[in-house]
Amino acid sequence: MSAYAVIIDAENRMLLPHWMEYGFGSGWTVPGGGIDPGEDPADAVVREVFEESGYRVDVAELLGIDNLVIPGDRRTPSSGRRGVALQNLRIVYRAHITGGELTVETEGSTDDVAWFTPAQINTLNRVSLVDTARRMAGVIS
């Protein structure tokens, strides 16, 4: 299970980190990630946004829950579970920045982070969660 945030600024730009799995794939994604055992999903998204962007956020509302099944032959080699299907429930929130400074994560699953307009997002190499989250938030253009 994982938790993600849709963060839109005053200029209608969306915050997206760049996910990378060396040797497997990459793409722009929504900030967020795995929920630690016993961790509240809203707390997880606050933690993950800070790790991936340097921003502190408040969770405003639950936008929805998405179900993703990754076939075993498409799992990343680093998971150690190649060949075993993975069902991932992705909880998507709307969040607002309360502080911090845009900072690229070091030694994590992302290697960049930036703000994008809807038109720019449409041209990006992005993971499917970006469009799912945009639909949930009503911000697809």
Which tags fit this structure?
41% strand, 3 helices, globular, alpha+beta, Nucleoside Triphosphate Pyrophosphohydrolase, three-stranded antiparallel beta sheet, 141 residues, four-stranded mixed beta sheet
Structure explained in plain terms:
This protein is an alpha+beta fold. It has a single domain, classed as Nucleoside Triphosphate Pyrophosphohydrolase. The chain is built from 3 helices and 7 strands, in the order ββββαβββαα. The chain has helices at residues 41-53, 118-123, 128-137, and strands spanning 2-6, 14-21, 25-28, 32-34, 55-70, 86-100, 110-116. Strands 4-1-6-5 form a 4-stranded mixed beta sheet, sandwiched between helices. A 3-stranded antiparallel beta sheet has the order 3-2-7. The longest helix is centred in the middle third of the chain and has 13 residues, at 41-53.
Oligomeric state, counting identical vs distinct chains: single chain
Q: What percent of residues are in strands?
A: 35-45%
> What class, by secondary structure content?
alpha+beta
Question: Total helix count?
Answer: 3
Architecture per CATH nomenclature, i.e. the level-2 architecture:
Alpha-Beta Complex
Number of domains: 1
